[in-house]
Amino acid sequence: MSNAASIVAVVLVSIASLAVGAFGLRLSRTMSDFYVASRGVGPVLNASAISGEYLSAASFLGVAGLILARGVDMLWLPVGWTAGYLLLLVFVAAPLRRSGAYTLPDFAQLRLESVVARRASSLLVVAIGLLYLIPQFQGAGLTLRTLTGAPSWVGQLAVAVVVCLNVLPGGMRSVTLVQAFHYWLKLLALLTPLFFLLGALGGRSGDPDVGAVFVADWVEPLRGDHALYLTYSLVLATFFGTMGLPHVVVRFYTNRDGRAARRATLAVLVLLSGFYLLPVLYGVIGRYVASDLVAAGRADSVVLELPSRLFDGPVAEGLTALLAAGAFAAFLSTSTGLVVSVAGVVSQDLVRWGAGHRQGIRTFRLSTVAVVAVSLLLTIVSAGVPVAHAVELTFAVAASTFCPMLLLGIWWRGLTARGAIAGMVVGGGLSMGAVVSTTFGIATGGWFGVVMTQPAAVSVPLSFATMVLVSVATRASAPEHVARTMVRLHAPEHIDLNRGSFHPERWYRRASAPVSPVSPVSPVTHVNQSSAANGATTEGTDSGTQHTAYDSGDTTARRSQPTARRD
């Protein structure tokens, strides 16, 4: 039976993923291993891992479903999701790596020198990560329901269990190897059946069945109501949202240096460009032979159902099983990356149970279980939003919050903590409102409803404008060491300069330790620059006193210890 073959394929993918992750466990020994794989991932391996993580349920199933249902306008999805990495390559990749951060909140603290900005970024990372996990679990439930008729919660629970087993032992070190394996599996899973489908389609005679939707509406762009706004909003969300996704950004911290980050990003562009041709072709083939799925509300399942529409017997069973394996790999790879990025932020900033290496890893693992459990609960209570559209909305949130903070923080020294927080509140509030209204089925009408469907065209410019205007108005509160931070972000690593000494692991240890309210925090001891990734920052949060020890690697001089503001 096709069901049996597909189930075997899903089980084999899960076992293979766990086996690859177990190999990574042998290499995971420190907190740096868990968070950023000790910044030792080469460009080729990292590019494969980034691509494997990025190609989610929306890419494997959702793009083909939207092409089937809505036609040429949806081509902007694969174009935008790929072009987002071009912007990353040009503006963000190398400076992010040079920052020495583990997470987006780490970057916010380094650049803005504000604990409040760090906390706001932490909350946004959790929100975006949970929103992105919902469609991954939805896709898993859809896949197993399509293949076996089992309830949706079975597939969702299966993905949750495998993700936990992958992340808990080795963190980012294990996940990197698993995601690289998943990319090549997904590429093979889509490419192999496509040759069979194209051959079978070429041998068919007669006119294709194009379904109830007029061909003109499918092949001509900008034909629907408010189509121009919706298209430009989608373009903004996909182009700018990529650089604001926490699970994407965290992968750039795993590169050896800024040059390696750029090389990895360039390789990602090549890998994604080749992959995204495939789901588009599946959507076009589905338009010819499976257009009834649109009326039935099952467009997202077109990739899985095409083999049975063109073949019978063992060929259909084998091709369906291969596609099922690729789909399950898509859910696993993206979910593991999201869980690592969100659990890292939760364990560092939102939950602090003890200090030190062992306690930090224990907190990371407990946070992993909590993140997966909450995501499952949200998936169960959310409405049946199409997988790709749910991801579009998440991109809109990322584009309206972290993208402006990163671009302005890296390239404009005038950005202040108050400006960044205000912009993230404005952009995030509007885009999150759109996500909530759509995900939970809250009906809205008129232009307001259109904006809630695609908020990026409004929320992204508002976020940028708010950050700039508030920063100009509060220029007196600009970060004290912004000049040194900009040197750290933009100067190549081989140039011997004073880059400060921020290091997130020391922030975590200091933040986890109790601080006396009557005595200042003692400065950290000298840090070997080569082993500490440009130094460390330590801050005490209990007493309201934060001290940052800046060390350029020169043992003859000690910089002053500025106080980070609580804007």
Automatic annotation (TrEMBL):
It is found in: Cell membrane. Residues 513-524 have a biased composition (Low complexity). It is a multi-pass membrane protein. Its main location: membrane. Keywords: Cell membrane, Membrane, Symport, Transmembrane, Transmembrane helix, Transport. The chain crosses the membrane at residues 6-25, 45-69, 75-96, 116-134, 154-171, 183-201, 229-253, 265-285, 319-346, 366-387, 393-412, 424-450, 456-478. Residues 525-567 have a biased composition (Polar residues). It comes from the Bacteria. Pfam families: SSF. Residues 513-567 are annotated as: Disordered. InterPro entries: Na/Glc_symporter_sf, Na/solute_symporter, Sodium:Solute_Symporter. The keyword Transport applies. Belongs to the sodium:solute symporter (SSF) (TC 2.A.21) family. This is Cation acetate symporter. It comes from Terrabacter tumescens.
